[in-house]
Design brief:
Chain lengths: 131, 547
């Protein structure tokens, strides 16, 4: 593991709600991580490609369009196909509580719902990726 | 006068003697708030700055009788699944006395994509109804007399295609465009600033806007071509002043576009309407609405020379702030939404959507929507706030705050003008950077505990209660894709090609694109096909993300 944590912050889906993605990108950057923000309207393929190119340790997926049960498992499958299953995937957005265990079972490390302080995401990544 | 002064000094001394609790005394947008407002804080002449409801500068309201004449319209935005399902819902609403429909389209439709596009994966019919072709539009309005209802369509980048479909579907019912009433959102500028659903770069998008405005001004006297929207700007994290300033500057850009297209300002300005957010900082919101009316009337009259009184009226729809809702203890959102609704009412809104308490989790359940509608009815019928017009007019505090928001808006207008106008400012990333900065500042204030959100950073929930959430039928997508495939086999594909060529030609040669779009739609060309054809000429757009 390199010294600095590298994170791809990805906005998947067709919706343009990027306030959360930008807030989390800034918070991770302020915490000393290297952040690559993909911008809007990314497909799972584009996100995984960026992650591999950037040699990132984690992908933070922001999703508010309701397509999380389709798009997140797809990202995890693509990581596996590319021998990159060690990349930590976490996500945030409008995600119903009952979907959280299903997402974790599919391989998502953590799910942050609206109102979660950004420091929790910072602490989570540091806990998972450092030491 | 002397005794008054003395009294104020005595109060000041006494106040300072007592001290203040440890809290942030500023609006959520950062406007510092004094402990007390007095006549010394209010400048200017009553008749010039406030006047009477229904009279220039309309600070107190756009109509002389406001809610004593007619209450605001309860307008809840809805839609999901297939056209046939939404049609059933529309008929139910009409049978129960509703005469205005509000269509929510799904994300692929909003982005000008067909349901079978790889980008549409997982999004068909989830956040709204899927419309690919005229066939879907016909189904959506089957058995509904399109000459009798008014329809609001929340559609922006491909608005011209959906408007064309609406016109042709009505024509098939024997209803001419002249008789069609309604609104399409069609505010492309705020897409670049905040909502981010676009097809082309800003310049050609403004050309399409002009084409629609000219078409509707000539053929659709009962149609509102644009609903100029601050809602999304605020949801993206802007301050109240930024919402006010960026929305109104977009509005002025549309006025200038109409005038550049050769229309007289009074031919189209009466049909411009607005859409604002009502956030949680109560007085700041009320001040924002009052300032918005005064600025619009003043600039329309003095800068654009509008003579028709209706061109000066800022009529607006309001929605409570989705971003203020929390996933923690969701029932608390009922209270948040009620306060926000009250601010919109005291600000003089013409119609209102109240969010449902479960919307930080999913699309709302029917029960949650019912509570939201009841909240408006309780405000309208039980609280007595509708008994007099603009009840907060003349409040030293509210007037001072109205003046402050107005001042901040004019500051922004100046900055945007200095950059060469709204489109140039967007190309420079100006509005987006201002919003990102404000959004980050607010988040820092919340995380440092300088500002409180109940159950988020104070009184944290110990035991989270579960609420039942709404689920979208996952089979909608398969059905929609299958129907689209069948349509593409059945229609005259040669004719579709010809029509798409004609659309491209109009784009290249600067002819009004509405007419060939109507012909393409009639031949059952899809939203995705027409959008891609136009992108071949106009190009696509990708923003430089600002964090």
């Amino acid at each position: 593991m390199a010294d600095t944590i590298r994170v791809v912050v990805a906005k998947v889906g067709l919706d343009g709600h990027d306030r959360g993605a930008k807030i989390i990108a800034r918070a991770l950057r302020d915490a000393g991580m290297e952040v690559i923000y993909t911008g809007l309207h990314q497909t799972p393929e584009q996100v995984v490609e960026a992650t591999i190119q950037e040699d990132a340790d984690a992908i933070g997926v922001s999703i508010l369009s309701g397509a999380h049960m389709t798009l997140l498992p797809r990202i995890i499958d693509l990581l596996k196909e590319n021998d990159a299953e060690d990349v930590l995937v976490f996500c945030g957005g409008t995600i119903p509580k009952e979907d959280i265990p299903k997402l974790k079972e599919a391989g998502v490390g953590e799910v942050f719902t609206p109102g979660t302080p950004t420091r929790k995401a910072v602490e989570y990544l540091q806990g998972q990726l450092v030491g | 006068m002397d005794t008054e002064k003395k009294a104020k000094d005595r109060w000041r001394e006494a106040y300072e003697g007592r001290g203040e609790r440890d809290a942030e005394f500023s609006t959520m947008s950062g406007v510092p708030i004094k402990p007390l407002y007095t006549p010394d804080d209010v400048e200017g002449d009553y008749d010039d700055k406030l006047g009477y409801p229904g009279q220039y500068p309309y600070t107190r309201g756009v109509y002389p009788n406001m809610y004593r004449g007619r209450l605001w319209t309860v307008r809840q935005f809805a839609g999901y699944g297939s056209a046939a399902e939404t049609n059933e819902r529309f008929r139910y609403l009409i049978d129960h006395g509703q005469n205005g429909l509000s269509v929510a389209f799904d994300m692929p439709t909003l982005m000008g994509l067909d349901s079978d596009s790889p980008l549409s994966l997982g999004e068909v019919g989830t956040e709204g109804v899927a419309v690919d072709s005229l066939e879907d539009m016909e189904k959506l309005f089957e058995g509904i007399d399109m000459g009798e209802i008014s329809t609001s369509m929340t559609i922006n980048a491909p608005a011209h295609v959906l408007l064309a479909m609406y016109v042709v579907a009505a024509e098939k019912q024997g209803v001419p465009p002249e008789k069609l009433a309604g609104t399409n959102q069609n505010d492309i500028l705020k897409e670049y600033i905040a909502q981010k659903e676009w097809l082309f770069p800003p310049e050609p998008s403004m050309q399409v806007f002009k084409d629609m405005l000219v078409y509707a001004t000539e053929h659709m006297p009962r149609w509102n071509t644009v609903s100029i929207s601050g809602y999304h700007i605020r949801e993206a994290g802007s301050t109240a002043a930024q919402e006010l300033a960026f929305t109104l500057s977009d509005g002025f850009a549309y006025v200038e576009a109409g005038m550049e297209a050769g229309l007289d300002v009074d031919d189209f300005a009466p049909r411009l309407s607005f859409f604002f957010n009502s956030h949680i900082d109560f007085f700041e919101e009320i001040a924002k609405f009052r300032a918005a009316r005064r600025i619009w009337a003043t600039v329309m009259k003095e800068k654009y020379g509008a003579k028709d009184e209706r061109s000066l009226l800022m009529r607006f729809h309001t929605q409570t702030a989705g971003v203020s809702l929390t996933a923690q203890e969701p029932y608390n959102n009922v209270a948040r939404t009620a306060f926000e609704a009250l601010a919109a009412i005291l600000g003089g809104t013409q119609s209102l959507h109240t969010n449902s308490f479960d919307e930080a989790l999913a699309l709302p359940t029917e029960e949650a929507v019912r509570v939201a509608v009841r909240t408006q009815q309780i405000a309208a019928l039980e609280t007595g706030v509708t008994n007099t017009i603009d009840p907060l007019g003349g409040s030293y505090f509210v007037e001072a705050l109205t003046d402050e928001l107005e001042r901040q808006a004019y500051d922004y207008f100046k900055q945007i003008e200095d950059m060469g106008g709204v489109v140039r400012a967007i190309e420079n990333g100006f509005q987006m950077e201002e919003i990102a900065e404000a959004s980050a500042r607010y988040q820092r204030e919340v995380e440092s505990g300088q500002r409180h959100i109940v159950n988020v950073n104070i009184y944290e929930p110990k035991d989270e209660s579960d609420v039942e959430t709404h689920r979208v039928d996952p089979t909608v997508s398969e059905g929609q894709v299958k129907r689209l495939k069948e349509l593409k086999e059945r229609r005259d594909n040669g004719r579709v090609e010809e029509c798409l060529e004609a659309v491209k030609k109009a784009c290249r040669e600067g002819e009004n694109v509405m007419y060939p779009t109507i012909e393409a739609v009639r031949a059952y060309a899809t939203v995705g096909e027409i959008s891609s054809a136009m992108q071949e000429v106009y190009g696509t757009y990708r923003e430089t993300p600002v964090i």
